[in-house]
Amino acid sequence: MLPNSIYKYLIDLRKNNNRDWFHANKAQYNQAKKDFELFVELSIQQIKHIDPSVTGNNAKDCVFRIFRDVRFSNDKRPYKTNFGAFIARGGRKSRYGGYYIHIEPEQCFLGGGCYMPEAKILKAIREEIYHHPEEFKSIVENSQFVNHYPELYGEKLKTAPRGYPKDFEHIQLLNYKHYAVSKAISDDIVTSDKFPLAIHEAFEILHPLNQFLNDIIEDL
């Protein structure tokens, strides 16, 4: 189960998102971070039975920092109000498709794939889908997949990407800026002993999409 220390800390941080409170409660943060890293270590062991490519990762490679980059943001709150981890070959900075765990009271979700891929990767994914649309559709239109992930994540181009015909039958599959998905998970599930099973089910369904994406990325 996800330790209660994580939720408690994030709820408190949401109410007190400032540096003075953060430093005065550093011990509470350190405990919550340690507990989350242990949970991620256990999740990595679980996921590698689904996708062996994540073997070799440890939690510190995968967990995101809690500090926000506020340099170009109107929102100057210094800290994220979530713990997150991206489990993929190479860890959180990987260019490969992977598996994401997001813990935030009332806003938890599981997801993955390729979020904000670099231009070269995005072009290669579109090219593969253009030439093999049925293979991609067999993954994202599979009934089990749709039950967990009804649609791909994020905004889409309003017109066909440059270099592709507007009358291509499956042009909507090329318009995505991300090839990623997400699935909301209730607090009741996250804080129960059912959460590991929810992770296994969600990521087992996600694996074929990551395999499709990573086969493309490996060839670049």
Describe this entry's structure for a reader:
This protein has 9 helices and 4 strands. It is of the alpha+beta class and 220 residues long. The chain has one domain. The termini are far apart. InterPro entries: CHP02453, UCP028451.
Structure keywords:
single chain, 220 residues, alpha+beta, 4 strands, 45% helix, CHP02453, DUF2461 domain-containing protein, UCP028451
Low-confidence stretches: none
Q: Tell me the helix content.
A: 40-55%
* Classification by helices and strands: alpha+beta
Task: For the largest sheet, list the strands in their spatial order.
Answer: 1-2-3-4
Proportion of strand residues? 5-15%
* Count of individual domains: 1
Average pLDDT over all residues: 97
Number of beta-strand segments: 4
Instruction: Tell me about the largest β-sheet.
Output: 4 strands, antiparallel
Order of helices and strands: HHHHEEEHHHEHH
Shape: globular
* Straight-line N-to-C gap: 39 Å
Pfam families: DUF2461
Organism: Ancylomarina euxinus
Protein name: DUF2461 domain-containing protein
Task: Describe the protein's topology.
Elements: H1 4-15, H2 19-24, H3 26-47, H4 59-62, E1 83-87, E2 98-103, E3 109-114, H5 119-131, H6 133-140, H7 143-148, E4 179-184, H8 187-190, H9 195-218
Antiparallel strand pairs: 1-2, 2-3, 3-4
